[in-house]
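Action item from last meeting closed. Structure (141 res):
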C-alpha cells in the first residue's frame, strides 16, 4: 500500500510559492508559501500537514488500543502541535505535543493514560518519524 502527495514550487524561498496535492484529491493545488510556513499567510505548510497526519494516526491507534482492552471509546479527539523553532542558522521541528481527550465508558484515568502513551509510541506516524528515507534526485533542463 502506498500513499502519494506532490509538491510544486516556483521561485526563491521568500518570494516564491507553490502548491501541494494528494493522489486522493483531498488536497488539490493547495497553496503554500514562505508566508504560510513562517508567518501567518493563508494556505497550508508541511508542519501543519504533519500535525494533521499525527493527530489522525494517534487518535485511530488509541481507539484501537482502547477497544482491544475492552473499552471501546464513544469518542477520542486529539490536537497535535508541531513545534518549529529557529535552531542555529535554520529551523527545526523540535517537538510534537499531543493533547487528547476521550469519552471511554468503563475505563479509568490510569488505563486511558497508559494506552495513550502506548498509542503515542506505536502509531504509524510516530514510528515513521524515526525511519530511514531514500531520495532520487534528477536535474531537468
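Sequence:
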Amino acid at each position: 500500500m502506498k500513499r502519494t502527495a506532490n509538491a510544486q514550487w516556483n521561485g526563491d524561498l521568500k518570494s516564491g510559492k507553490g502548491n501541494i496535492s494528494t493522489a486522493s484529491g483531498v488536497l488539490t493545488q493547495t497553496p503554500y508559501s514562505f508566508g504560510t510556513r513562517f508567518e501567518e499567510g493563508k494556505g497550508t505548510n508541511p508542519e501543519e500537514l504533519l500535525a494533521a497526519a499525527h493527530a489522525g494516526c494517534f487518535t485511530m491507534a488509541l481507539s484501537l488500543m482502547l477497544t482491544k482492552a475492552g473499552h471501546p471509546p464513544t469518542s477520542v479527539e486529539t490536537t497535535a502541535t508541531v513545534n518549529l523553532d529557529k535552531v542555529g542558522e535554520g529551523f527545526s521541528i523540535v517537538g510534537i505535543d499531543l493533547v487528547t481527550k476521550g469519552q471511554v465508558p468503563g475505563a479509568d484515568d490510569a488505563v486511558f493514560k497508559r494506552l495513550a502513551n502506548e498509542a503515542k509510541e506505536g502509531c504509524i506516524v510516530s514510528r515513521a518519524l524515526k525511519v530511514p528515507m531514500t531520495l532520487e534526485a534528477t536535474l531537468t533542463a
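Note appended to the action item: The first helix runs from residue 34 to 38.
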